[in-house]
Design a protein that fits this description.
alpha/beta; six-stranded mixed sheet; five-stranded antiparallel sheet; ATP binding; 11 strands; nucleotide-binding
Length: 238
Amino acid sequence: MNDILRTVNLEKRFGKQTAVSGVSLHVRAGTVYGLLGPNGAGKTTTLKMIAGLLRPSSGEIWINGKPWTRDCLREIGALIESPALYGNLTARENLLVHTRLLQLPESRIREVLETVDLTDTGNKKASQFSLGMKQRLGIAIALVQNPKLLILDEPTNGLDPLGIQDLRGLIRSFPARGITVILSSHILSEVEHTADDIGIISGGRLRYEGANRHGTDLESLFMDVVRADRRKEGAGDA
């Protein structure tokens, strides 16, 4: 299976602080890739570079076997941090803004609303949506240009158990629709139930990458990787 996304020694520095260092990801087409790490590990910074929201300090990003350019954004949809919604507009009106900006047919609006199960919201304003509905509308916006790669940063944050389960099912449905997903989270159980492959970032570095095999004790693996990294960092400071 070909990699739809590959990064090579990706690095991001903010002044003298290095947030991401030497990250080389391999995301297979037609899969859900779970990017795990403690808070502040560099997950969001990595995803922002892939989505074109931050410029890498060094390293390479490859999309479908080609070096990243602005044209790659046509193949990438992203929901990073909170969805940017117009609270005074309905779900359909929010999507209409984006289809017009991107010069897409309005038929895409109903298609993506059906995908995220928001066709029955009618005239309800986005400001009145539950958190789960807002997340799904944010995903609909990310899907409107029919991307090949969907980036989701902590999409289940703040959701109740039912909302988490609904979103999990939605994410798992994307590979069958031809959409590869890279999903970041610090909630191990969500990645364990959702991802085909996992990467673990700690201290800005990719410390582990491999298949999420059935029966893997992901919590033990995660803790072993992060603790080993912290011991190494502690020894380096000594």
